[in-house]
Specification:
Blueprint: H1 2-18, H2 34-49, H3 53-68, H4 70-77, H5 87-109, H6 117-120, E1 122-132, E2 136-139, E3 148-155, E4 169-173, H7 184-192, E5 196-202, H8 220-230, H9 232-236, H10 239-261, E6 267-271, H11 276-285, E7 290-295, H12 310-313, H13 315-318, H14 330-345
Parallel strand pairs: 4-5, 4-6, 6-7
Antiparallel strand pairs: 1-2, 1-3, 3-5
Length: 349
């Protein structure tokens, strides 16, 4: 959905700017109304999907187009007619048309690889929770602000048949350079194999990662990626701090999952690079709950440890690692094969 929203934004920007070249007689200019509408859509995109390169470009271009068309909006609101646009306005329109076209093409080239849940027989649910780590989490009320987002991937139940019983329960803890959506193909393929998988993204005031405005759910992932790429050694030196935070997430997520499965249910615990120490400690303290564990950054076929399946979810970022968009899902499939191996052979004492 994010991809289609970005396409719509850049397409509307193209229409908004191209219109200035087709005024050949005196008339009103209703298409100018697309300028504020498109700018509003860019803001909604950020609130829905967070900040990245394309949502940021859409916001900047949308704002520039909105401001440059303010006079035309005023004329339209006053029911005034126009017969031409100035050379300056047309020059500006050429620039924004070129910019919007480049963004539109880039958005298509670097579009994510989507797995259709219905086609692979997987059911995906999102559960919203309010609360914090001190007082606990409860299902969010309709008008309340959610602080935790629990994603559940499980085998879909065919129509007219009894509910499919999952093989086992998997709890996945993401690295903060990648939220749950960054690992989505991997989690979907695990569910396709018959497992029920839980993963959660927490955004509470009592568990901070960056201790600035960058802890916001709209910017935390991209801020973590930037900080790591700017100074990888410093970022990795924060492992002890991350271990403490991820341990808190493990406890909270286990409590939430227990409400659905009961506190006697054992599960597999999986994480990525910065969570490796945390799950090792958690398994030692809760051996009676663990059937197996895996840090996917230890898998040789996983080329982007800490960032998720970006060859599918963020092909633009994958260029940093000299990797191309991969619609064959080679990486996620390799991760699933390794995960299946531990579910068959590994146990935690």
């Amino acid at each position: 959905m994010k991809f289609y929203g970005e396409l719509l934004v850049f397409l509307l920007l193209l229409i908004t700017n191209l219109r200035v070249f087709f005024v050949s007689h005196v008339r009103r200019d209703p298409l100018v109304a697309l300028a504020p509408i498109t700018f509003l859509l860019t803001i909604l995109q950020i609130f829905s999907w967070g900040i990245d390169v394309f949502t940021t470009l859409g916001l900047i271009i949308g704002l520039l187009v909105f401001l440059s068309n303010f006079h035309a909006l005023f004329r339209y609101a006053e029911r005034l007619y126009i017969d031409h646009y100035s050379p300056l306005m047309k020059t500006w329109a050429v620039f924004t048309v070129m910019l919007s076209t480049l963004c539109l093409v880039a958005t298509f080239i670097f579009r994510p690889v989507e797995l259709n849940n219905q086609k692979i027989g997987v059911e995906e649910k999102l559960h919203r929770y309010e609360g914090n780590f001190r007082s606990g989490f409860t299902p969010a009320r309709f008008f309340s602000k959610a602080k935790a987002f629990l994603y559940e991937y499980s085998p879909a139940t065919p129509l007219g048949k009894e509910k499919v019983q999952p093989k086992d329960l998997i709890i996945f803890i993401s690295d903060k350079r990648g939220d749950t959506s960054s690992y989505r193909p991997y989690l979907q393929l695990l569910a396709k194999e018959g497992y029920t998988v839980y993963s959660a993204d927490f955004y509470t005031d009592d568990l901070r990662w960056i201790h600035t405005f960058e802890d916001s759910k709209y910017i935390r992932r991209i801020a973590s990626v930037y900080r790591c790429m700017q100074d990888p050694q410093w970022y990795m030196s924060q492992r002890e701090f991350y271990t403490y935070n991820i341990m808190q997430e493990c406890r909270a997520l286990l409590t939430i999952v227990d409400e659905n499965y009961g506190s006697d249910k054992k599960f597999y615990l999986i994480t990525d690079e910065m969570g490796e120490t945390a799950i090792n400690d958690f398994c030692k303290k809760n051996p009676e709950r663990i059937k197996g564990k895996l840090a996917i950054n230890t898998i040789s076929d996983y080329k982007t440890p800490g960032y998720g399946c970006i060859e599918q979810t963020d092909p633009l970022l994958s260029l940093v690692f000299n990797l191309k968009r991969d619609k064959s899902l080679k990486g996620p499939k390799a991760l699933v094969e390794s995960t299946l191996a531990i579910t068959k052979s590994q146990s935690v004492e």
